[in-house]
Amino acid sequence: MVLATGSASAGFAIGDRVMGTGDVTRDGSWAERVAVDHRVVATIPDGLTFADAASLPIGVLTAWEAVFRDQDTLPAGVGRVLVVGAAGGVGSMATQLLKRTSAFVVGTASRPESREWATAMGADLVVDHHADLAPQLRAAGIDAVDLVFSTSGTGGNLASIVEVLRPFGHLAFIDDPGPMALGAIVGKSLSLHAEMVFSRILAGDAGSQGRILARAADDVAAGRLRPIVTTTLEGLTAATMRTAHTLVESGRSVGKTVIAL
Predict the structure, then answer these.
(1) Residue 207 burial by CB count (10 A; 0-12/13-18/19+): exposed, middle or buried?
(2) Distance CA 15, CA 191 (A)
(3) Per-residue CA distances from 192 to 93, 174, 187 (Å)
(4) Which of 19, 130, 213, 242 is the most buried (most CB within 10 A)?
(5) Section 152-178 average pLDDT
(6) Which residues form the Enoyl reductase (ER) domain (predicted)?
(7) What is the pLDDT of residues 56-71, one digit of tens each?
(8) Helix 207-221 crosses helix 57-67 at what angle (to 10 degrees)?
């Protein structure tokens, strides 16, 4: 909620409910109150709780910038997309955003509950990222995909990812893959896109994130996008912060964990 506005801010008033990722150039990671650039937040739709709103920004922005990049549509020629880690926070939002297009979305998940969640997010097909991807896709009648969006394990899965991508396809990733052997990528002339959600702010393009979030808010209000809260922890304390980190770092959580003040 907006508690105060600066002289340079516009579009918001004290008392407005807003959502955003914050600003990596400013202090306040675990603070109860933070000062942010007004261009990186958007108004929370009426009827949406703070907890549900908190589940949206980081996933929406990361997925949008990685998959759509500087436009509102997929790159030309992209019709089949593989989302590695489709049950996670970013993967959940990526799947939903992709299903607003005409794309056929393949999600990866390894456990019954994560497979069920990925399907609920809209995935047309769910495969196991702990097994070879290519045979699973071929069994479903898919020889190759046009774009892979990898949210985790990119370095370890690189050979499998390259195998399922068509020549001149696209690989977008958001984790730190470590050293990568790029020979196979070069052989297929694949485009490679690394995404870090605060890069636009650091580059002076803060306004794009507010616009993306405003559009996401409209999508939520219209029922085209759903919040992804699966666990809500009460109170911003050292204990809830430890619990939240433990859940995320386990690699077994689905959707989003939120701490409610």
Answers:
(1) middle
(2) 44
(3) 21, 11, 13
(4) 213
(5) 94
(6) 1-259
(7) 999 999 999 999 987 7
(8) 110
Angle at 157 between CA 93 and CA 109, to 5 degrees: 45
- The CA-atom distances, in angstroms, between 53 and each of 16, 31, 86, 94, 217 are 13, 18, 20, 16, 9
Strands (E) located in 141-212? 145-150, 165-173, 191-194
Residue 149 near residue 172 (C-beta atoms within 8 A): yes
How many other CB atoms are there within 10 angstroms of residue 147's CB atom? 26
Q: Does domain 74-194 have CATH number 3.40.630.30?
A: no
**Is CATH 3.90.180.10 the right assignment for the domain spanning 1-57+198-227?**
yes
Task: For 20-32, write each residue's pLDDT tens digit.
Answer: 998 888 877 788 8
What CA–CA distance (Å, rounded) separates 256 from 164? 28
pTM for the whole structure = 0.93
